[in-house]
């Protein structure tokens, strides 16, 4: 089976912050791959925009180095790179002054899709939006892509929404969360809503609990001062983990339509109960394995910012009342892995004398590494000696099931940028959704700040603070092992 590649309409994509780290690591290599796949038409143009004084050739040289560095060697096509670079231009623009905007207006064409990627600090979003309209570069059909962080609390998120709304309609604003572009996340919706198998069981009556884990092995060294202003709650839980929770808990939308999907996600966020202080564990990694501690990397020996957080929350609606959702994320943990585990309840009556080997059915959705799904079921252990039970996985690793097709799955940024060009907002956050997430997160953050809670230390290479284990143990449950 060969995946279909459907070209998008001709476009001009302006990347503000076109010389920055995100552009070099993700955006430009992703566009290169879409070009090789035939999804970019020959009359599409990519325009880097930043303060650096470069000409087209200087920028193309930078783009070539970025593509070569961040593209796997087996995916690199030198001839294709040369052809791709012919579609790349550069304009020196400063978001805070007027220089360069008239030149940008001359370069951006009429009659094609116009998209503007704000790969810059949020403090510049309003300036860019205002200047795009003042200089007549953007119009009613233009689209803007906004990177996180989208605010650091409810008040700042609302202010940012108002600034963007002064110049762009909600239908033109694409708030990007790259987790929603992952193949497995979208397959989660397909498994739920395209198969009758799970949907009748997808409720509190049959599901004991849900675990969502995003674990990283890296620390914050090199960007500790920046990270210390946010922490794991703002950086991961309020957006990435919240989006995963919504996709697990949402009701079936009436149609796979952007607003229909986002309406159902918004209902989940609004149904979240307040999280109690005893249901939150925060941590900071200690020094070890030849690496410094979090407080050393943050350059603040008195830092109370968390590099790890685990919490238990509840969705108070008919479908989920009584089923806890456990969320955890952290730096410098045992392995790099992201997964959602839906743990089903045990049967109401055990038929077999030997129940000592009983384990729950678990549906695991792996986001990284080795994207795929696994369903753990109970079978009879082979051999004589009675009915001994054994848990085995029914594994659907995409690389195994789909072969070469899975190896060529687009990166999240590739998929999401192409969705921007298509005008499809399904996998992007709406303004009211962002504000609802902050309305839930703000009291949690304000609570520990008011109490003066200090995060617990945990060893690098571990699963996090000991109290995070107790968060589950006291409920008679346990976290899944963190492993690749």
Automatic annotation (TrEMBL):
<dbReference type="GO" id="GO:0006006">
    <property type="term" value="P:glucose metabolic process"/>
</dbReference>
<dbReference type="GO" id="GO:0009051">
    <property type="term" value="P:pentose-phosphate shunt, oxidative branch"/>
</dbReference>
<keyword id="KW-0313">Glucose metabolism</keyword>
<dbReference type="GO" id="GO:0050661">
    <property type="term" value="F:NADP binding"/>
</dbReference>
<dbReference type="GO" id="GO:0004345">
    <property type="term" value="F:glucose-6-phosphate dehydrogenase activity"/>
</dbReference>
<feature type="binding site">
    <location>
        <position position="331"/>
    </location>
    <ligand>
        <name>substrate</name>
    </ligand>
</feature>
<protein>
    <recommendedName>
        <fullName>Glucose-6-phosphate 1-dehydrogenase</fullName>
        <ecNumber>1.1.1.49</ecNumber>
    </recommendedName>
</protein>
<keyword id="KW-0560">Oxidoreductase</keyword>
<feature type="binding site">
    <location>
        <position position="51"/>
    </location>
    <ligand>
        <name>NADP(+)</name>
    </ligand>
</feature>
<comment type="similarity">
    <text>Belongs to the glucose-6-phosphate dehydrogenase family.</text>
</comment>
<feature type="domain" description="Glucose-6-phosphate dehydrogenase NAD-binding">
    <location>
        <begin position="14"/>
        <end position="187"/>
    </location>
</feature>
<feature type="binding site">
    <location>
        <begin position="17"/>
        <end position="24"/>
    </location>
    <ligand>
        <name>NADP(+)</name>
    </ligand>
</feature>
<feature type="domain" description="Glucose-6-phosphate dehydrogenase C-terminal">
    <location>
        <begin position="189"/>
        <end position="480"/>
    </location>
</feature>
<feature type="binding site">
    <location>
        <position position="235"/>
    </location>
    <ligand>
        <name>substrate</name>
    </ligand>
</feature>
<dbReference type="InterPro" id="IPR001282">
    <property type="entry name" value="G6P_DH"/>
</dbReference>
<dbReference type="InterPro" id="IPR022675">
    <property type="entry name" value="G6P_DH_C"/>
</dbReference>
<feature type="binding site">
    <location>
        <position position="148"/>
    </location>
    <ligand>
        <name>NADP(+)</name>
    </ligand>
</feature>
<dbReference type="Pfam" id="PF00479">
    <property type="entry name" value="G6PD_N"/>
</dbReference>
<feature type="binding site">
    <location>
        <position position="216"/>
    </location>
    <ligand>
        <name>substrate</name>
    </ligand>
</feature>
<keyword id="KW-0119">Carbohydrate metabolism</keyword>
<comment type="function">
    <text>Catalyzes the oxidation of glucose 6-phosphate to 6-phosphogluconolactone.</text>
</comment>
<comment type="pathway">
    <text>Carbohydrate degradation; pentose phosphate pathway; D-ribulose 5-phosphate from D-glucose 6-phosphate (oxidative stage): step 1/3.</text>
</comment>
<dbReference type="InterPro" id="IPR036291">
    <property type="entry name" value="NAD(P)-bd_dom_sf"/>
</dbReference>
<feature type="binding site">
    <location>
        <position position="178"/>
    </location>
    <ligand>
        <name>substrate</name>
    </ligand>
</feature>
<dbReference type="InterPro" id="IPR022674">
    <property type="entry name" value="G6P_DH_NAD-bd"/>
</dbReference>
<feature type="active site" description="Proton acceptor">
    <location>
        <position position="240"/>
    </location>
</feature>
<feature type="binding site">
    <location>
        <position position="182"/>
    </location>
    <ligand>
        <name>substrate</name>
    </ligand>
</feature>
<dbReference type="GO" id="GO:0005829">
    <property type="term" value="C:cytosol"/>
</dbReference>
<dbReference type="Pfam" id="PF02781">
    <property type="entry name" value="G6PD_C"/>
</dbReference>
<dbReference type="InterPro" id="IPR019796">
    <property type="entry name" value="G6P_DH_AS"/>
</dbReference>
<keyword id="KW-0521">NADP</keyword>
